[in-house]
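sry for the spam today, last one i promise. struct tokens for design, 249 residues
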């Protein structure tokens, strides 16, 4: 079996698993929908932001939230495969473990982008103004970011065997990343401690890059956000590969 063939079938397996889990699709969009429908529209007449409505400001942040949640929780599949024995069968196959990581990362990223596109359609239906000309660059960015976060999820899952423990660690990691990203409030008006914590949070640059591509406004140059995300992508993939290779077959 060639490495590309192995990557393809692992990627395909992730998509089949996702398509058969209707509750996962609905559940992944429920909380972001309520954020937009209740907070975004409800506070639109109260909260003022520069260059547009609060719903327009919030939509890219909620989109980043969907991509983050959909990506990083894909790591739990590594633990599930380990518990049901599929991971052992995969790891003794005549392919490199790096190919397994790449296949899982691409599969998880594809499902996360699908969820992101669904959320983008919901945001537009709710009244968010999206620059359609920048949809393709935004999709490319979502895919790159999804690979980064799926790899981070795989890296963490590779060091754990308990599914409940993984969920707790992910919640402890994911929620602060989201709330410190500037998705719900402008960083320019945030207190200094929160603003400085945001600058070391990779989610901040995801939100700012999506906000630039979808609304044309951002507090950071797109080149800065893209450069930091590119570095984070390489680092997370290398970390996932290294930790996954340490799993005993």
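last one done:
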């Amino acid at each position: 079996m060639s490495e590309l063939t192995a990557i393809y079938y692992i990627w395909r397996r992730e998509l089949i698993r996702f398509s058969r889990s209707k509750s996962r699709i609905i559940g992944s969009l429920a909380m972001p929908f309520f954020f937009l429908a209740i907070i975004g529209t409800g506070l639109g007449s109260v909260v003022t932001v520069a260059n547009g409505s609060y719903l327009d400001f919030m939509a890219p942040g909620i989109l980043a939230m969907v991509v983050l949640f959909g990506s990083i929780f894909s790591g739990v599949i590594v633990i599930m495969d380990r518990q049901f024995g599929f991971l052992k069968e995969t790891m003794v196959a005549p392919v490199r473990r790096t190919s397994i990581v790449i296949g899982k990362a691409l599969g998880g990223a594809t499902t996360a982008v699908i969820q992101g596109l669904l959320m983008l359609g919901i945001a537009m239906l709710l009244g968010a103004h999206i620059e359609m000309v920048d949809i393709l660059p935004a999709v490319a960015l979502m895919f790159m970011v999804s690979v980064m976060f799926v790899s981070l999820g795989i890296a963490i899952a590779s060091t754990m065997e308990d599914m409940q423990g993984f969920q707790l660690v992910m919640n402890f990691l994911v929620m602060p990343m989201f709330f410190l990203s500037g998705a719900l409030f402008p960083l320019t008006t945030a207190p200094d401690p929160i603003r400085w914590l945001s600058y070391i949070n990779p989610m901040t640059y995801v939100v700012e890059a999506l906000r630039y591509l979808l609304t044309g406004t951002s507090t950071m140059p797109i080149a800065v956000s893209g450069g930091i995300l590119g570095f984070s992508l390489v680092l997370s993939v290398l970390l996932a590969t290294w930790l996954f290779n340490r799993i005993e077959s």
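Residues 3-245 form one domain. ok im logging off now
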